[in-house]
Design goal:
By secondary structure, this protein is α+β, with helices and mostly antiparallel strands. The chain has eleven helices and 13 strands. The chain is globular, with a radius of gyration of 23 Å. The termini are far apart. GO terms for molecular function: kinase activity.
């Protein structure tokens, strides 16, 4: 098929993992502008953008290619990493940082399977950022390989039409995606967080302690993002999120611990609990805990800060019911069916926290348990999410 600017933009737009990739890059590096760019000899085009600094470049926007560092990457086929432009012997007097006003920058090339150059995955920030850890560049290059795989899959999809796409081939591409996330991203992030923990234990200066603490928080945040994207990929394979089932005698204790953890992270919010599970329940306790945690985080983000978040758990008519309720602006009826779609947020949501995967994962956990997840919302009664699982649904 003939490749054009429009077809390349459309191909990147169809790759559902791209927003997650940009978010993880930003969270891991601290760089607040990230993009996937299509680069040719005479053009630089933004195919996907995460802009937290009002850089002013939207999807489809063009730059003069000769003014960019990506132009140099196209020629050299080598990545560029700059922690602090003003102290970099190569780029301190370069025209590109002066023109676009950045102090830190990282970019890696994206190659198609036939070896041709597609463009770059790049990120920058007006402030300096320490990008010297080789694991950061390794993560960027892993993402570039993932983008190349997904681009090839999208182009094959278009050329052969959706109805004729081989299901096994698609599953293999998604499995490669899971493998890349699981190994090439989680391992470097584990190393980063372990190093930050060691530095935090040995820090004697408040400034060093603060930096180590921020690195640790960012590392844990990036790990949570990767886990969410892994769950997204598993869910979209069609088999749902995998479960580790067992008969749990103390599910009540597990759920109370989850409430305590979320309350610690939201000290300004009040939680009320009525959790009674007097019998053993066959389920995956870690996934049920994840479901409750996501529902509580959603209530804390969108509920009225003056009203308590209510948690009700019990057994009724051979069913396990978990309900999380909060007061606040009701959800419009036409939006209720959209809540469990990945990456979806209300258009007026200004928080922009996370990837918008929390409720999608809640829905997938419920589906894997043979359960139903319901939501009701009104000005009078507030918003309530209810997990409803027949106790016999997962019996061996």
């Amino acid at each position: 098929m003939k490749r054009t600017k429009a077809s390349d933009l459309a191909a990147v737009a169809r790759i559902s993992a791209v927003p997650s990739i940009l978010q993880v890059v930003a969270e891991t590096t601290g760089l607040r502008f990230a993009a996937v760019a299509r680069v040719t000899q005479d053009s630089w085009t933004a195919c996907a953008v995460l802009d937290q600094i009002n850089f002013g470049l939207a999807v489809g926007g063009d730059l003069e290619v000769a003014t960019t560092l990506c132009h140099e990457i196209q020629s050299s086929h080598r990545p560029i990493v700059i922690s602090k432009v003003s102290e970099d012997c190569t780029y301190a007097n370069h025209h590109t940082p002066r023109l676009y006003g950045f102090e830190s920058y990282i970019s890696a090339p994206v190659f198609r399977s036939d070896g041709s150059f597609f463009g770059t995955l790049c990120a920058l920030d007006p402030e300096p950022r320490d990008l010297s850890d080789p694991k950061i560049l390794a993560m960027m290059e892993s993402f570039c390989r993932l983008l190349a795989i997904q681009l090839e899959a999208e182009e094959r999809f278009v050329s052969t039409e959706a109805a004729l796409l081989d299901a096994q081939e698609t599953a293999e591409v998604r499995e490669q995606f899971i493998a890349l996330l699981g190994h090439d991203l989680r391992n470097p992030l584990f190393s980063i967080t372990a190093g930050a923990q060691l530095l935090l234990r040995r820090a004697t200066e408040p400034r060093v302690e603060g930096i180590a603490s921020n690195i640790l928080m960012s590392g844990h945040r990036a790990l949570r993002l990767v886990e969410d994207v892994l769950d997204l990929a598993r869910g979209r394979l069609g088999n749902g999120i995998p479960l580790n089932l067992s008969r749990i005698e103390n599910l009540e204790h597990t759920l109370l611990h989850v409430v305590s953890e979320v309350q610690s992270a939201n000290a300004d919010r009040r939680f009320t609990t009525d959790i009674q599970v007097p019998i053993a329940v066959r389920c995956d306790p870690d996934r049920i805990a994840q479901l409750l945690s996501n529902l509580l985080a959603n209530a804390a983000s969108h509920g009225d800060v003056q009203a308590p978040i209510e948690v009700r758990v019990g057994i009724k008519e051979e069913r396990l019911l978990i309900a999380v309720a909060n007061q606040g602006e009701p959800i419009a009826p036409e939006k209720l069916s959209l809540l469990f779609q990945p990456y979806w947020r209300p258009s007026d949501d200004g928080s922009k926290r996370g990837l918008g995967l929390g409720l999608f994962i809640v829905g997938e956990i419920a589906r894997s348990h043979g359960a139903e997840i319901r939501v009701s919302s009104s000005a009078e009664h507030g918003t309530t999410f209810t997990f409803d699982m027949p106790l016999e649904a997962l019996e061996a």
